[in-house]
Records
---
Amino acid sequence: MSRRLFPLLSLALVASMLTGPVVAKAEYNNAPPLSVALLGTDKALQFEQPARLDRVLKLAQDQQQVLQYSLAVTLFDDSEKAQQESTALKNFVLNQMIQHNLVAHPFYKFLKQSQFAPRVLSAIDIDQVRLDKFDNPLLTGQFTLSASPREEKVLYVGNVDQIYNVKNQAGIPLQQQVENLQNGEIGKLAYPPIVIYPDGNVIQPHHGNWLTTQYYLPPLTMVYIPFGDFEQSPMDQDIVKLLVQRKPTSSKN
């Protein structure tokens, strides 16, 4: 499990008495010490005291959240400060796209309709959490738990004429996937793609190695096609920072 910690979050590894949670609609007025919204539902787990991660995951399962594909199980920071920071980054990216005359581009609409928040914990494996106390922090604050089911698909976004949801690509490396798309749908790529794995890790294949190195893409990977030379393009770099924070929205994207 990978960790990203933020100032407003309190993740302390100390013992605590837990009280029973309340399942309620996801609202944050007069928020309790711990509230975990369940992405894709209108429910939130609300606790009167901080709670361990394993307790939160168990109760999420009781609410029919499937946690089998651990690479895509993510805890997002929904604190007010985190929301402000993500909104500021989103608006900054959209403004850059407007300045580059990309307001009519399908990717602009994709970003505008998406929701974002900083990641706190990624690739959460419930079995590992139960086994290792260092992977089972005490949580307090406001969060969203995302637990996308495993679907054999890869999302291609960015400098392409539409959002491509490519299915049945298990075992096919990035270079072969892109070749197939270039021959059929998206045409020749001007710049190497950027790979964003479901756990938020980013791989930047370069011109010299992405055609020779076999980058295998696990289900729900996002492949970003830059609008310019990534290393020289602040806009593309900011877009990738934003995409790492993207909350999955549906089985379609």
Note: The helical segments are 53-62, 80-99, 106-113, 126-131, 174-184, 234-244.
---
Amino acid sequence: MITEDHVREQLKQVIDPELFVNIVDLGLIYVVDIQPGDEEKQNVAVEMTMTSPMCPAGPQLVANSRQVIEAIEGVGTVDIKVVMDPPWTPDKMTEEARDQLGIF
């Protein structure tokens, strides 16, 4: 059975190419929703944001996120929606990410 925690853990493999911090610790993942799918698979829907509305790494982050989720055993469909509300702010980062970036 796929859990939200497992999906989030796998998404830590996706690194923002500008900040060199994973997207989970950056606070870019807002929602992970897991629903029953076909043939004993589970469908995963993710709402994520970007550090800015014109983030040049956006398409790469979405593609890499999709690839990581699709690689989880038992995943059916993957839907990733980019949202800008609420807007991302540095306070959404984990303490580890703030330390890594030197933000106190």
Note: Residues 4-89 form a domain with the GMP Synthetase; Chain A, domain 3 fold (CATH 3.30.300.130).
---
Amino acid sequence: MVGTDTGVGKTVFAGLFARYLMDEGVGVRAMKPFCSGGKVDIEFLQAAQDENLGQEDLNFWYCDEPISPAAWELRHGQAVDFEGCVDWVKSRQWPGGSGQGGLPSVGGVRQAGVLLVEGVGGLLAPLAKGKTVASLGQALGAQLIVVASNRVGVVNQVLLTIEAATKRGLKVALVVLMGQKEPDDSVPKNADLIRQNLPEMTGFKGVIEFPYLGPDVSNPDLIPILAKEAGKALCQVAELLALSSPSGASD
């Protein structure tokens, strides 16, 4: 899960989508391997999954400073263990998992059939020397969900992100446009313009417009309510990614 920028709503979408899938009976884990500048995002993902998860279940690297991991490397003269992070994420993937059912524990590590891995910032945000969010996607063989703020300028931002991704051999599965409190005049046509200008891509599923959920969207206590309010969009995402349970969407 990659953004066109920082602060576009990746964590909110990841958390609510994880909650939706869990309610549908899908064995899912949402995680943010790299996080800095506060634990609000980690706490939101913990609450969204409604389990007794520790930070170590969702996050590999953390620092209090609001800087990228690579900037932290330069400031402190210590290396970020990128390869260790890749191994950490892979250890959470249930190899035989279809995504349905519970979360097995292997060697004390709870695994999931579906992993939602949230990046930091944009696709080319640096994570370590010579490594970016795109590098993490490549190492994991991930399908990308591009999350962006639905406002003027988003068409260019999304198309640039997708171009950078495909040039690096990454597969883009979906674009999610996050609704804004005060939508500008570009909003009604942004999704259509993105669809019209996308390159040919194998496995691309579509562009989803996600509703604005209010000023308290990051409040973990509101997650059950927010997931219901966004239920239609979350159901569309699950169906496009073939992650819906046989019973269909929750009410």
Note: The domain at 2-240 is CATH 3.40.50.300 (Rossmann fold).
---
Amino acid sequence: MSHESVWYSRPRTYGKGSRACRVCTHKAGLIRKYGLNICRQCFREKSADIGFVKHR
């Protein structure tokens, strides 16, 4: 078996490998709260469109 055929051979159903940003498909820095599933970079870009307001 070659390395390419084994690399993603098992299904990712749980853990960090199973989740990705719904905007850019990035896997790190994911905000899962409220079912957002958006990485933090995309959240900063889209937060006003979603309806989040920054206040102190």
Note: The chain has one domain: 3-50.
